Amino acid sequence: MPSEVSPFRFAELAPDDPVGRDEVIEALLERARNGRFVLLTAPRRFGKTTLVHRLRKAAGKDMIVVIADLQGVRDLTMLARRLADAWRSLPASLPRKVLDHVSARLASVTAFGAGIGLRAPDPSDPAPLETVLEVPIEVAQRTGKRVLVVLDEFQEIAPIDGADAIIRSKIQHHTDRVSYLFQGSEESILLGLYDHGDRPLFGQPERFRLAPFDPTDLAEFVAARFRATRRSITTAGLERYIAATGGHPQRAMRLADAIWQRTPERGQADVADVDAALAAAIDEASVGFADLWGALDHYERWVLGLIVDDLSIFGPQADAIGLGQGTARGAVDRLRRKRILREDTSYAKPALAIIDPFFAIWLHRTASARS
Fold this sequence. Notes:
Rossmann fold, Helicase, Ruva Protein, domain 3, two-stranded parallel ribbon
């Protein structure tokens, strides 16, 4: 077993470990420089956070990038405080007057609702959020630099009454100095914030959907990391690896690590090593997959079974098992909301794909699970 540290990190992809995406980063930077609003969507564990940290690094000293994690926000007050937390991480290299101004602004946000008798803040009070939303334009004016605000897991604001209206009322006046990147994992909810004419953010952002890793970029990355640690992997092994992961960022790093762990220094991994590492990784996840499968209704199971067998959910096989078109569409919608299915746009005609390639392989191999 290797005694050195694996070059493949899968718990959290590192910004300094790039696998392609250069065109996406340049496109996002170009929009940011021009004051555009951008919506970035992708399934969980697809590397959105890593991409944003690479974006901040690529922006250099010409742009101030602030990233706010909105995961778990439940009301306007919590949203305001989460944004305030993000602004507390401004670079210490900024002018002291700017940092002091931001600190004073954030102190006023914290003070809302803390009056006589230490009353709890009113979660529906818009004042703290309105205050903290002015910070980006103030920082931009005081530094002379463009500011990019990244609102991560932005779908979390969907059920908060009035949040999107307050946000739009402020940011629509900032575009000459401030840009906004909205990103999240719940595509159906995110699009609901922007696709309906009665929503305040209707039609605002340009959309980007983060795709799986490009196969060529991923193969080059893995092969280079093996070489850097005095190991190698055969061409056939790489091909099997790419096919198994489908370019899923987290699963790709997970399997690359498993293969690397099986390969001794100056050794070479082949197809058999890839298959053994894949089997071990899927076996490790099998309990979770079984629980996931058990929580699905039989229509959702039928849809997944047809997809893993490369059959149409609207074809004769679907008719033979009693899966009507309306029922199939309903099951697909539920599976997308559960983050099990996504639309694969890599083909001329978009198709449905199971997000987790390991789950897809588990389904294909576990015939009893689909009976």
